[in-house]
Design goal:
929 residues, alpha/beta, 8-stranded parallel β-barrel, two-stranded antiparallel ribbon, globular
Length: 929
């Protein structure tokens, strides 16, 4: 090792010293708690497992590996569960320490004046260097719409009780850096011990399946911890970068939970009402708290600080006539505003405020009325030199009202196109308009639907009896109309059609809008819709047809005029998960890229002709195998002209917790979305990638698609292998989501949801959806001819250096390969009953993994994975020894479970152990689903 390398390693060790200290502290306390709770023998067993695993993983000690294997196989049921719980909780605690260290390093860099990639400060510096003026940035933000959308998740494994305890531990670890005295540090350590004791004695698993109501509450917890306070803070940072300019409310939160009924029979009109009511209650209670606290702070006397006439009028309108506050106009006004908010809370949600100085009265009709009152207070404070009091609480509250209104987040409605078709078919049959609508060819469907959209008469027959499905679907549409009236225009904006395969899929939803009052007028004559009809293109075939379908849709008479009259916005959702399961990671990404380019070309024409704005909605998952990976790089890797200040993207499952559970990290992640959107809009090149790059990507995609399909869909026995060599069966039984793991009751991979598909491969450490097909594709593209091979390799290396799309794709591939472990994966192959089948298919998987690994090294020049990301490399290196025992024990318990007999009293404990191991592995891998 030379001096430079030695110095670099020493610097890295010093930077990571606080992280190592935090992990050791948390590990030591966890060990103490285990010794106290489970006894000395249990603690020593766990320590022995830990030491053997570290020796095997970090020191390549084969003897330690064999000893570990023997030890784990001979554990009793109780010992197994105890070891799994210990290592699962260690993964959770290591995540907390890493998150804290991430914040610590960022604060250190900012204190040194070093700008961080993805920060707003870096973005504004780049904009300044490019001579982009403040006015242009402000104008971009005025027309921008940036929205992360929280979704429920079929593999959500964290209980709310666990999340709450871990948030408390995270706060205590963060406070330790500021503690100076031994006494304070000892007290802090005692509080951490209390929370870890709570964790150890808290059930990690749910005893009942998660309900939609549970999922709604889980999502709302992130508003309490992060969004309600951190989004206004993010706006403040933008205002500081653009002094003297008013920043429009361009950033909005979205939510699927309670409105996404695609494949989830438990989402109904009742859950939609519940979601909107609970969201409204959450934000209104936040406002009530802030107004109450403002009343404590704004104690100024009119005798000392004369207020404006508007402020005096606001105070006079208050029902507060307490003599002690006669000369305190701000307090009187705020008590009146509190009373109005309390009345609003009761009106919208049926619940009561916690405290009342005066009785609730005169509810606000709209959030902008409340905002107007707050602005009166602001103007008055500034008039008597009390502007310093605006910043701490009033300004964040005003910004919160602009962003969250009385609705908190926009709830999307979603349903599969075949469900809409079934409703339309039943309505048409009952009305004797068409006996077999579903049997009609596409042109006939379009012609009939357009005719009906131009007919003012309703379809429903008053005396007819409709199926439960049709009644339920129509109830959702009708409820949406009532909820819009109650909670306002921003509460519901988008109606997403899963599996959009043709123009009729969009027209069917418009017809249901017309039937239920969500569309007014006839299509040919000034029609207006209350919601935006959003097609979701998911499979490879759907992505290829996206632009042709939208072109044909907008060619229909009246559609463009209707969209212009309804807000002049068209959202289009692109599905990363299903396209990946359908065609593999590379082809999925490439077809998404091509679809975006084609859609932008179409909407450039539509914008010129009708003034329509395109907004792409990216259905990204957490894993690379579902379109995941760092959001900043992903947004910058979008094709030129596709962002344009407009972007929605899903945030799912464990990724929500890792991004937004910690307030500071949450704000950084929100900043990243804004920073990337500004850079992609204002700094991104407008020229497309060179023709040679596009042609190479097209060739690689075709070869990758063929290799992926050959392995996953055409290899005999692959489905049996998947159901045996991954924990998919056990995941389907786990109470970790309200939605079933499969759309249909079959074992076909086609019917399996993309999320459990990807999650299962991650659990067994293969992570196949994130890389499969790439190695074969590069091998085929380079070919055998030495001259061609040299030229094409040089082109690929150039693409890696110069093309953000290709570079980001390879960066994500690097990460997913680094997190996979075929040595661990081989253990799962032992679960395949047909040993010959298991060896044959795992041999194919291993060969493709090695081809992919070699291809990546060839293009990037990096022999080891994550050479360019040493921070993540170190994290994985230290994390894997604690993950390995979980995987080994998961395999052993799956073997016992699958060979067990019904009625065996020990099976419940075995199943519990498997499910806890799933939780632990998910926590250890982080971006899991």
């Amino acid at each position: 090792m030379n001096n430079a390398t030695r110095r670099s390693a020493s610097d890295a060790a010093e930077k990571n010293r606080p992280l190592v200290e935090d992990i050791r502290l948390l590990g030591r306390i966890l060990g103490d708690v285990i010794r106290e709770q489970e006894g000395k023998d249990a603690f020593e067993l766990i320590e022995r497992v830990r030491k053997l695993s570290v020796a095997y993983r970090l020191k390549s000690d084969a003897q330690a590996g064999r000893a570990l294997d023997r030890l784990l196989k001979n554990l009793s049921g109780d010992q197994t569960v105890s070891v799994i719980r210990a290592f699962s909780y260690f993964s959770h605690l290591a995540n907390i320490a890493e998150d804290r260290h991430h914040v610590r390093r960022r604060e250190h860099h900012e204190g040194q004046g070093h700008l961080q990639e993805g920060s707003l400060a870096t973005t504004f510096e780049r904009l300044a260097e490019a001579d982009i003026r403040a006015n242009e940035i402000v104008r971009t933000l005025r027309h921008a719409y940036i929205s992360p959308v929280l979704t429920a998740h079929p593999t959500e494994v964290q209980r709310q009780s666990i999340l709450s305890a871990e948030r408390a531990i995270a706060e205590l670890i963060g406070e330790r850096d500021e503690l100076r005295s031994d006494r304070d540090r000892a007290e802090g350590e005692s509080l951490i011990r209390a929370r870890i004791t709570q964790l150890w004695q808290t059930r990690m698993l749910r005893t009942a399946k998660l309900t939609v109501s549970d999922e709604i509450e889980n999502a709302l917890s992130y508003y309490h911890s992060t969004f309600l306070r951190q989004i206004p803070r993010m706006y403040r940072e933008i205002e500081e970068q653009l002094p003297g300019h008013e920043i429009a409310p361009f950033f909005r939160m979205g939510n699927w939970i309670g409105g996404d009924r695609d494949g989830n029979p438990f989402v109904t009109e009742v859950t939609l009402q519940m979601a909107l009511r609970r969201q409204s209650e959450t934000v209104l209670r936040h406002y009530l708290t802030e107004v109450h606290l403002l009343g404590s702070e704004l104690s100024m006397s009119a005798m000392l600080a004369p207020v404006t006439a508007e402020m005096q009028a606001l105070a006079e309108r208050s029902p507060d006539h307490n003599a002690h506050r006669e000369d305190e106009p701000y307090r009187r006004a705020l008590i009146g505003m509190y009373a109005r908010l309390a009345a609003t809370l009761h009106e919208l949600t049926g619940t009561e405020a916690l405290r009342h100085a005066v009785a609730p009265e005169s509810p606000y009709l709209h959030a902008h009325e409340f905002l107007a009152d707050l602005k009166v207070i602001e103007a008055s404070l500034r008039s008597h030199h009390a502007g310093a009091l605006v910043g701490p609480r009033l300004a964040p509250l005003m910004r919160a009202v602009q962003v969250f209104g009385f609705h908190l987040a926009t709830v999307d409605l979603r349903q599969s196109s075949d469900k809409h078709e079934a409703v339309v078919a039943e309505l048409l049959k009952a009305a004797r308009i068409e006996a077999d609508y579903s049997g009609l060819p596409e042109p006939a469907k379009r012609e009939l639907l357009v005719r009906l959209l131009n007919d003012a008469r309703p379809l429903r027959v008053r005396a007819a009896s409709y199926s439960e499905h049709t009644d339920g679907e129509l109830a959702i549409f009708e409820t949406a109309g009532r909820m819009l009236q109650r909670f306002g225009r921003e509460s519901l904006r988008h109606y997403i059609i899963s599996h959009t395969e043709d123009v009729s899929d969009l027209l069917e939803v418009l017809l249901l809008f017309k039937e239920t009052g969500l569309m007014r007028g006839e299509l040919h004559d000034a029609a207006v819709t209350e919601l935006i009809v959003v097609p979701l293109f998911e499979t490879i075939g759907d992505l290829r047809n996206a632009a042709p379908i939208m072109r044909a849709y907008y060619a229909l008479p009246g559609v463009a005029a209707m969209m212009k009259a309804s807000g002049a916005e068209q959202d289009i959702m692109l599905g990363y998960s299903d396209s990946n399961k359908d065609g593999g990671s590379f082809t999925s990404n490439w077809e998404l890229y091509r679809a975006e380019i084609a859609l932008v070309e179409l909407f450039t024409e539509l914008d010129r002709a009708h003034g329509l704005t395109l907004r792409l909605f990216h259905g990204r998952g957490g894993t690379v195998g579902r379109g995941g990976g760092p959001s900043y790089q992903a947004i910058l890797a979008q094709p030129p002209g596709t962002v344009n200040g407009q972007i929605r993207l899903t945030e799912q499952g464990e990724v929500i917790a890792s991004k937004y559970a910690h307030p500071e990290i949450g704000r950084r992640n929100l900043e990243t979305l804004v920073a990337a959107t500004l850079e992609a809009t204002l700094l991104h090149p407008t020229k497309s990638a060179p023709k040679a790059f596009l042609e190479a990507a097209d060739a690689i995609s075709a070869a990758s698609y063929a290799a992926y399909r050959k392995l996953v869909y055409e290899t005999p026995g692959f489905t049996d292998y998947f159901f045996s060599a991954t924990p998919i069966r056990e995941i389907a039984e786990l109470n970790i989501g309200s939605r079933p793991a499969s759309r249909k009751a079959t074992r076909a991979i086609e019917d399996l949801r993309a999320i459990p598909w990807s999650f299962s491969w991650g659990q067994c450490r293969v992570a196949l959806p994130g890389w499969c097909g790439f190695g074969s594709a590069i091998e085929a593209y380079l070919g055998k001819d030495p001259k061609q091979r040299k030229e094409r390799l040089a082109l690929l290396q150039k693409m890696h250096k110069q093309w953000p799309f290709f570079r980001t794709l390879l960066s994500n591939l690097d990460m997913v390969l680094a997190k996979s472990d075929l040595g661990i994966a081989a253990r799962y192959v032992e679960l395949v009953e047909d040993k010959k089948l298991g060896r044959r298919i795992f041999g194919l998987v291993r060969a493709e993994w090695e081809r992919t690994n070699d291809a990546l090294s060839l293009i990037t020049g990096e022999k080891k994975r994550l050479e360019s990301n040493p921070t993540l490399a170190r994290s994985i290196e230290h994390r894997f020894p604690y993950l390995d025992p979980l995987n080994h024990l998961q395999v052993e318990l799956m073997r016992r479970y699958r060979s067990g007999r019904d009625g065996d009293p020990g099976m419940d404990r075995v199943k519990r152990g498997i499910h806890i191991s799933i939780n632990g592995v998910a926590a250890g891998l982080r971006n899991t689903g």
